[in-house]
Design a protein that fits this description.
Pfam families: CoA_transf_3. This protein has 13 helices and 13 strands. Helix 1 crosses helix 7. The strands form four sheets. It has a six-stranded parallel β-sheet, with helices on both faces. The chain has a three-stranded antiparallel β-sheet with strand order 9-10-11, covered by helices on one side. Strands 3-4 form a two-stranded antiparallel sheet. By secondary structure, the chain is of the alpha/beta class. The protein has two domains: 214 residues, Rossmann fold (3-Layer(aba) Sandwich), CATH 3.40.50.10540; 67 residues, no CATH class. The longest helix has 24 residues.
Length: 366
């Protein structure tokens, strides 16, 4: 779909590489520019055959060239590469690319219609713009973390980096939109993505509801307050999710379970003084998770399991769609960025795998 599109990727760690991997798996040629020591994610945390799995998970289908951007020869090669590209993505703190002489204003002298995207924490203006931060900070400042609380009201520390991933998605979306615009107008442009603003953008419902009602917990029938849209524990201390909002799904559940008398309790509260809610909790705890998986597969009632990460590769949905696959080259299970795309993505590149020595002979023609 993006065959012929070249993107120069100056990003490291997670958000930027996630963004460009989404584009690479749609066919774009992504050339990852790494420092001589490589993307720091190569040496971060858990490793597989000496390479950090965070790097392996977010850099499939890319090319790697190492450049020391502070050296004149390597800087010139970076300019050469940009001059052949459709888009540039960078995720340094504000001001770093300007110091390197690779900011938007400078590179447009060599590639007038370049699409240039900066993926930042807080954008390009305001008192926060130059501050260092990470995913947890963006989740906290956006109001999203306040939606994830335990029974005492304490925010739960997430084990997944939602702001980073959403920021990456927003960057890939913006790059695609800008490339399309360039096709129509002949003009590139500069785009600055704020990860804090991106994740705050999902708080629209909450903001309006709070203004109207004073309730900051969002859509009442989606936040665990009704029995037909809730999480239930099973006999083996596992959990299932019920999302039977539409009456037909709720009726399917009630009839299949032999409780037609529950039908009118569709939107009743998940409160301990609600006898039907207490009966439902007891019902779900009377059967094992697999029994409820089978039930939800056979009865169309929006009932699915809460899976652990090691169960994903065996679950029929992902197995049938081949969206989770085992690499034939390294044996790792991975998730496709676009599950309906055929074929196995190329694994993450070795450091400088696509650089050529001597450097003056690097092939950059497009």
């Amino acid at each position: 779909m993006l065959k012929g599109v070249r993107i120069i990727d100056f990003s490291n760690y997670l958000p930027g590489p996630f963004a460009t991997m989404r584009l690479a798996e749609l066919g774009a040629e992504v050339i990852k520019i790494e420092p001589p020591e490589g993307d720091p994610a190569r040496n971060l945390g858990i490793k597989r055959a000496g390479t950090g799995v965070v790097f392996l998970a977010n850099n499939r289908q890319k090319k790697s060239i190492t450049l020391n951007l502070k050296e004149e020869g390597d800087y010139e090669l970076a300019i050469q590469l940009i001059s052949t590209a459709d888009a540039v993505l960078e995720s340094f703190r504000p001001g770093v690319m300007q110091k390197l002489g690779l900011d938007y204003e400078t590179v447009t002298k060599y590639k007038k219609d370049i699409v240039y995207c900066s993926l930042t924490g807080y954008g390009e203006k305001g008192q926060y713009h130059s501050l260092g931060s990470h995913d947890l900070n963006y989740m906290g400042i956006s109001g999203v973390l306040a939606q994830l609380k335990d029974e005492t009201g304490k925010p739960i520390h997430p084990s997944i980096q939602l702001a980073d991933y959403m920021g990456g998605m927003a960057a890939s979306e913006r790059i695609l939109a800008a490339i399309l615009s360039k096709e129509q107008t002949g003009k590139g442009g500069y785009h600055c993505i704020s990860m804090a603003s991106v994740i705050a953008s999902i708080m629209g419902n909450h903001l309006l509801i709070e203004q109207e009602t004073g309730d900051s917990s969002g859509i009442s029938f989606l936040n665990g307050q009704i029995i037909s849209y809730a999480i239930y524990e099973t006999k083996d201390q596992r959990y299932v999710t019920m999302g039977a909002l539409e009456r037909k799904f709720w009726e399917n559940f009630c009839h299949a379970i032999g409780k037609k008398e529950w039908t009118d309790a569709h939107f009743s509260k998940t409160e301990n003084d609600n006898p039907i809610y207490m009966e439902m909790k007891a019902l779900f705890k009377s059967r094992y998770l697999q029994e409820w998986v089978d039930f939800g597969t056979n009865v169309d009632c929006c009932l699915t399991p809460v899976l652990e990460v090691n169960e994903l590769k065996h679950f029929s949905l992902f197995r049938d769609q081949e969206s989770i696959y085992q690499s034939t080259s390294n044996g790792l299970y991975s998730v496709k960025m676009h599950g309906d795309r055929m074929g196995e993505p190329v694994p993450a590149p070795a450091k400088n795998e696509h650089g050529i020595v001597p450097r003056t002979n690097i092939q950059v023609k497009k």
